[in-house]
């Protein structure tokens, strides 16, 4: 086995970002308490709070700092504790609404899986209410989109994207999700497939092997089995160039009890499922930041200039400002899509997809 993190050493990180990483690691593993305390001694707490909010890890950071008894300036203490309570409150509301959705879809005979969110929070951290989540992501079969839409409407959800319900079947032919809102109480992203990237994860669907996850008393939700879940999280993170720390943290937390051989098996299966280079990027990044172990064999396989470039590019996006709030801030992310999978046919299909999106076509 290689040293933690594989053959790629951890780079020098800004102190407040490194502290956020250390807090997240302690939360899921109980390891690194001394590192948290050492980094906290030199922390710019205002910058740290901004970093946690930018990366949406306030609940994880508060859990570590409060659990370790680290003293914070009063304004930051109040703000971070308040953010953590808001994350937990949102999780409790999502649990109630997810149970309602699960019961309704089961009664209607529509296969349904929950993606990310509460189920991932429970699997990764043992507590579904530490991890921030905005929407409830549900996956149905492509043939069930219209039925699922009608059911959401009966549950008082309003379609927000696309605006015209008549366009929904065509919309889902070219995009993997539509957005629905229940007043100010909840938002649902209805997925008919797990990614828009051409040819990636084509066999993962609402009929894939599943596991049931208890996220609250008497609330069990179906989600993807570990192998499919790993592949999906890699593609989801790669799609966004991992620009938020919470995404790679979730993956590292999910893997932290796995040894190097088990991780290699997950990687091999991800390649069969079609995760391509996103899994390489994910494991290198998780190794770099969180010390996820790689076997010598797997480290050698991942040791390519392109994989290293993708990993460094993701770290740059992560350490930079919020890309969605900067002019052309998401342009590097969109460009990186062309390198997540090899082959001219993939690149041509991705170019067509982007041209269609820019032109406002489905």
Name its key features.
single chain, about 10% strand, 16 helices, alpha+beta, Beta Polymerase, domain 2, about 350 residues, five-stranded mixed beta sheet, two-stranded antiparallel sheet
Description:
- The protein is α+β, with helices and mostly antiparallel strands and 362 residues long.
- It has a domain of 132 residues: Beta Polymerase, domain 2.
- It is 56% helix and 10% strand.
- It has 16 helices and 7 strands.
- The strands form 2 sheets. Strands 1-2-5-4-3 form a 5-stranded mixed sheet.
- Strand 4 and strand 5 form a beta hairpin.
- The chain is globular, with a radius of gyration of 20 Å.
- The protein starts with 14 loop residues before the first helix and ends with a helix.
List segments where confidence is low: pLDDT < 50 over at least 5 consecutive residues: 1-7
- Helicity, in percent? 55-70%
Strand percentage: 5-15%
Q: Report on the biggest sheet.
A: 5 strands, mixed
Helices and strands, in order, run as HHHHHEHEHEHEEEEHHHHHHHH
Radius of gyration: 20 Å
Mean residue pLDDT: 94
The neighbouring-strand order within the major sheet is 1-2-5-4-3
Shape: globular
Number of strands: 7
CATH fold-level topology of the domain at 92-223: Beta Polymerase, domain 2
CATH class category label of the domain at 92-223: Alpha Beta
Separation, N- and C-terminal Cα atoms: 47 Å
- CATH architecture tag of the domain at 92-223: 2-Layer Sandwich
Q: By helix and strand content, what is the structural category?
A: alpha+beta
Number of helices: 16
